[in-house]
Amino acid sequence: MNTEMESVPEGTENQSSPAKPAAPVRAKKGFVRRWLGRLFFLAMFLVFSFFLFIWHANYAATRAGHGVLFDKIEDVPKQRVGLVFGCSSKLGKRENLYFKYRIEAASDLYHAGKVDTLLVSGDNRDKYYNEPVTMRKALVAAGVPFDAIVCDYAGLRTLDSVVRAKKVFDLDEVTLVSQKFQNERAAYLAKAHGLKVYGYNARKVDGYAGRKTEDREVLARVKMWLDIHVTKKQPRFLGDKEPIAEVE
After folding, report:
1. Would the pTM count as exceeding 0.85?
2. Nearest to 198 by CA among 82, 98, 74, 111
3. H helical segments located in 66-206
4. How many domains, in total, are found in the chain?
5. Torsion of CA 222, 223, 228, 229, to 10 degrees
6. pLDDT at 32
7. What is the DSSP letter of 84?
8. Is residue 57 part of a domain?
């Protein structure tokens, strides 16, 4: 029995039909690339904004201290009250140089006749830890009269000390006494709350302790800015006014 075979053109036996372009796959890859690119630029923008904000907060404190903080005692304008910021007198069993230098600065300020009264403001968390009393004892030992020292027992933070100086101790102007980094931050807080300030910078602490404190100060200034412009932070404790009498 004879069967007729369909004729197939020579050379086409193994050819398949042309492949269609994978358009959906290419479109999907293009979509993913576009979104990855956008996410990358968004991440870079957020990182840049974060560091720019940190810089702005730190620069704001530095600018607040410009022209009102002094390293030489003869340059400090005469004010009625000096606000001394507290800290622990000891670091473990070692002397805290921040405390020592602040007491020296406050004592020198008083003896130079630049202030009549020293307002020592610090933490009094319990009967075994009392920064204002410790500062007062050290100042008396340095020759400052007991009656020329006023204690603020609720200066838990720099902000608390500054705002209480105005709202509790009824001061419109004050001379800040601490290391320069804290005086700058305090000047920013004080100006934001309507206080006129000058400042006398205590001696800087060098070495590892100084570098560690300066590193922490970067974020402390971020919180300073947020406390003023975002959270509107107020002192934990206020209470009745305790005006500081003028010295005749």
Report:
1. no
2. 82
3. 97-111, 131-141, 158-167, 180-192
4. 1
5. 60
6. 72
7. E
8. no
Name which of 230, 240, 205, 216 is nearest 95 in CA terms. 205
Q: Which residue has the higher pLDDT, 138 or 16?
A: 138
Q: Which domain holds residue 201?
A: 69-229
Structure tokens at 5: 């075979």
Q: Is residue 177 part of a domain?
A: yes
Query: Is 16 part of a structural domain of the chain?
Result: no
pLDDT tens digits for range 174-233: 999 999 999 999 999 999 999 999 999 999 998 887 888 888 999 999 999 999 999 999
CATH number for position 187: 3.40.50
C-alpha closest to that of 185 among 150, 161, 154: 161
Q: How far is CA 228 from the centre of its chain?
A: 11
Q: Which residues are registered as beta bridge partners of 149?
A: 118
The sign of the dihedral angle between the CA atoms of 48, 51, 57, 60 is negative
Domain presence at residue 1: no
